[in-house]
Write a structure and sequence with these properties.
Layout (H helix, E strand, L loop, with lengths): L19 E3 L2 H12 L7 E6 L4 E6 H4 L3 H8 L3 E2 L4 E4 L3 H12 L8 E4 L4 E4 L17 E3 L6 E3 H12 L2 H11 L7 H13 L8 H11 L1 H4 L3 H9 L4 H23 L5
Parallel strand pairs: 2-5
Antiparallel strand pairs: 1-6, 2-3, 4-5, 6-7, 8-9
Length: about 260
């Protein structure tokens, strides 16, 4: 969707084994063909990001695929002569950088399909416990004002929500599900970030965090970080978690009642 940053550094990728292929490779090829042949006469839009500006550029027709930028081009940030969109928030640097990578159908680490295991895995993932490509390669990123590192896929999901890019949301959610070995504090901080940057109607990323905490409840119930976060409160996360836990208990009771009726 975007062109490359004027001073971005190219990443040298590892060679991919023939047994692996990229996720949604057909869509990636089609999108790249469109980017390689931009609409004739499509003007260049300059994106000025952050207080210490970093400059990006994109074709207007391609940029307008995002409802967010369609509105920005018509709104207060648009300067008709200079063809410029100003995004003063430092947080947007990360969003734009990953949107650039996602132009090609994915962002690093890419989602790959392992034919031998018949499952998806992350590029360059540390597979020390034979988990099938699950690992924490570049799993976190630091965002100003977040109080610490956040899960990268969560930040990208929230950016895709902001920009109206549903396909990128689905990709980010799927890749986050392949991460492992994430500490409690990063999970809870990222969950708060997700709740702060998604609408109440979101049924994907928020539900992912609730299910993750319930699955790992033995770890979280012993966590001093979890206790502190719950005492601080200030987020709908914890009420939603309570409801999800109640539903989980109800499901267990229903299964038990089907075998030998009882109540709790």
């Amino acid at each position: 969707m975007f062109m490359r940053s004027f001073h971005s550094k190219d990443r040298v990728g590892k060679s991919v084994k023939p047994s692996k292929r990229s996720f949604r490779e057909d869509q990636k090829l089609k999108l790249q063909q469109k980017l390689d042949s931009p609409p004739v006469g499509s003007p260049i839009i300059t994106l000025v990001v952050g207080r210490e500006p970093r400059i990006f550029a994109a074709h207007e027709d391609v940029l307008s695929l995002s409802p967010f930028f369609t509105a920005a081009l018509k709104g207060q940030f648009y300067e008709s002569v200079a063809k410029r969109v100003a995004l003063p928030d430092e947080y947007e640097k990360f969003n734009i950088q990953n949107a650039i990578e996602a132009d090609n159908g994915d962002y690093y680490p890419r989602l790959l399909f392992n034919k031998r295991r018949a499952s998806f895995e992350l590029e360059d993932a540390q597979d020390l416990q034979n988990l099938g490509g699950r690992g924490s390669i570049e799993s976190t990123v630091e965002i100003p004002g977040a109080g610490g590192v956040l899960l990268k896929d969560t930040v990208i999901y929230c950016a895709a929500e902001r920009y109206g890019l549903d396909e990128l949301k689905r990709l980010a959610l799927r890749k986050q599900g392949l991460q492992s070995g994430i500490t409690v504090d990063v999970i809870l901080r990222s969950a708060r970030f997700a709740y702060d940057n998604t609408p109440d109607s979101d049924s994907k990323l928020r539900a992912h965090y609730l299910a993750l905490i319930i699955r790992s409840r033995k770890t979280f119930k012993r966590s001093g970080t979890m206790q502190m976060e719950m005492e601080i409160g200030g987020s709908k996360l914890f009420f939603d978690l309570f409801v999800a836990m109640c539903n989980h208990v109800d499901d267990i009771v229903d299964i038990g009642n089907n075998r030998s009726p009882k109540t709790i």
